[in-house]
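Weekly modeling sync, notes
Attendees: S.R. (lead), two postdocs, one rotation student

Agenda item 3: backlog of single-chain predictions. S.R. asked that every request posted to the team notebook include the full sequence so nobody has to chase files. The rotation student volunteered to paste the first one in as an example of the format we agreed on. Action items at the bottom.

Example entry:
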Amino acid sequence: MTHTYKVSGMTCSGCQAKVKSLLAGVESVNKVEIDLSKGEATIKMDKHIPTSALQDALKDYPKYKLTEIAPQYVPAFSEEAEDTKTWLETYKPILLIFAFITGVTLLNELTADSFGGMRWMSNFMAGFFLVFSFFKLLNLRGFADSYSMYDVMARKWTGWGYVYAFVELVLGIAFLTGFNPILTNSVTFVVMSVGIVGVLQSVFNKRKIKCACLGDVFNLPMSTVTIIEDALMIAMSGLMLLTML
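Predicted structure, as returned to the notebook:
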């Protein structure tokens, strides 16, 4: 993957060489190219490196200030695989997961005296968050790296990807146990509403990137399916909040 950064404070070829040398010494950096006239550093890396780690490499030279401009590469799904798969084959994993969660929660309602719409939605969201957090936790680092490429909060703080997986886990447990429904649904509404912003930006800009909704396990492209998935959680949590307030 390749990222481009703004580096201020470089005034000559000596500065150029120094910054290049310092950045090249960061672990997982594969190649560094410095454009002195633009004040930019283009870094090819073996894996995602937090901007803070690159900034630390320049800390002994305060005049050099590094800030991220925009990633030139994002974890992409295999376009070759996409070309050979049908829509159903591509999204089979997420469709099966939704089918299982829907089926199990509906069967649970059939064993009750009467169908409870709010209860079913609460159980559905419990299943959703527990299952999706499970896949994220299988490779937490891989999820965090992918998530930081499109989520608005994770782009500003890479650590949010690590935290988010556990937020989903906690929300799943909260919905399952019926813990403080107003608080649980409020947090869900806010978290999912913020999360959908990056998804919308990626889909509308037609960026060919990998969706991190199922962590780093499945090779799913970002698409309207991801929007529907997030929008469904927002709608359910919002509806339940309206019935409680």
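Discussion: group reviewed the output briefly. DSSP finds eleven helices and four strands in the chain.
Action items: rotation student to repeat for the remaining queue; S.R. to check formatting next week.
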